[in-house]
Amino acid sequence: MNEPTASPERPPLPDGLVAVVKEDCPTCVLVAPVLADLAEREALTVITQDNAAFPSSDDWVIHDDDLSLSWHHDIITVPTLLHVTDGEPTRRIEGWSRREWESFTGVSELGTDIPDWRPGCGSLSVDPNLTDELAVRFSGSRLTSRRVEIAVLEDEWEAMWDRGWSDGLPVVPPTEARVLRMLEGTSRDPDEIIAVVPPDLVACSVEKVAVNAVMAGCRPEYLPVILAAVEAACTEEFNMHGLLATTMPSGPILIINGPIRNEIGMNSGINVLGPGNRANSTIGRALQLVVRNVGGGRPGGIDRATHGGPAKIGLCFPEDEEGSPWESLAESRGFAAGVSTVTLFPGQGPRILFDQISRTPESLTRHLAAGLMANVSPRLALMFETVLVLGPEHMSRYRDAGWSRERFLEALTADLMIDADTVIRGAGGIEEGMPESLAGETLPKFPPNGIHVVHAGSGAGLFSMTFGGWVAGGMGSVTVTKEISP
Amino acid sequence: MSSTVLDPTGELRPDSRERVARPESLNGLTVGLLDISKARGDVFLDRVEERLAEFGVRVKRFAKPTFAKPAPVDLRHEIATSCDAVIEALAD
Hints:
Chain A is an alpha+beta fold. Helix content of chain A is 28%, strand content 21%. Chain A has helices at 26-41, 68-72, 98-105, 131-139, 156-162, 176-183, 206-216, 223-233, 240-245, 260-263, 278-294, 329-332, 361-372, 392-401, 405-414; strands spanning 16-21, 44-48, 61-63, 77-78, 80-85, 88-94, 96-97, 117-118, 121-122, 147-150, 193-197, 202-205, 251-257, 315-318, 341-354, 384-390, 417-419, 442-444, 451-455, 463-471, 480-483.
């Protein structure tokens, strides 16, 4: 276990007037005579970040050799001039401006032989080459996860695999620096418990989600999406335990709506359900690694899937809202436009709905319905919901005809009615089917509000896609939408 | 150089508990039959109940509300406190 090398306590600054400088900054060098002048005329302490003898080796210069003063007091620019009371800065100015420095110090005629104004340089404590190391040194101790040392002769990837932390694909080593950087993606406290993760019912902190998000290959800006997804998955309604344990090949499919899709660079176009986009590929995997590592849900353990499927590895995609004439999935579920959300659907791998001939919305709708009849089993009704991903070229049929989402769903639902006599057990020589007690009835294929329509895909290809569901509603899993907050 | 990573797991330290001893015989015991509500689990449990009755075993029947969720805590408690042994029917 590595101990932080410096105290995480915030070290006090010397009281009075303080300047923070580095010799590597031309503006600091320019104002060196001004600092000497101030030290002589007024009490001044200079904190130097690099050369201990800059701008002077006198005792009014302190060397911030481990950068703890600069880091803890948020020095962004050098020179920074501070008024300090009881060890804490009360006011600060940055760079060199004669007028500002005179006003700040109350000393006139400062640096009359140098230019009136010069911008400062970046503080050494925010140097991109040092920030990770400094974050670990000064705030690593706020992380509470157990430290695991990987020995010199061990291969990091093999060591993580041997410990059972991977789904079978490579994982990024969750070093303190990477986890701290990941946590920059949220304003939430690392200690906050956000969910109790099944199957082991383990209280999961923001920090543990961040560790697994690093391993999954996520960037820090994805973290709010992952946190919302973990919260949604671990609700009573979504029933992640059952979805994990089922022999069916279903897992949580994450559908992202709202501005965050574009802010984190998700792909809702070409190959939307395939590879090539980091956010699409890693966010769903981060959720699954949380279930695996924090919750203890592993294939062959509590995960009893007969075949499994892609949603058990990680399946996440955004809706193409900009290209859609309809309200988004999230809006149809009661969320305002402009709110970012994640919707979790308990689903299987995607399947194509192929139609290159239909030119009318009626024909296309009938054909989509025929395809949807096969979801899970053409013999079963009302038990499973579906996600229907309308491709842009199919959506054009509805746009051109002026159909709304409501009209489409009405027509689709009408085309999805089943004569129970054709699907009851034994009908057509097939033993599986709906109970005989339903003979004579007409059954809708999906339960009410059981068709979740999303618009996504590229502009070429007269295809849509469907995801079959798992046991729907209170008996199994309820589709859950959750707002994503920073 | 060695490297340090953070443990991604729940860092559980499970308590170890002794299992209830296996009964020598079912004579005079109460056996719970838990139906997880999968199709035809009841067919299997009906037959088990018949066979147990032949041995003079007292049987209590239980069912999960849905096979898709863990058994509710109250149900587990009731089985644990009112039965000496339990048989669970898992499959279709």
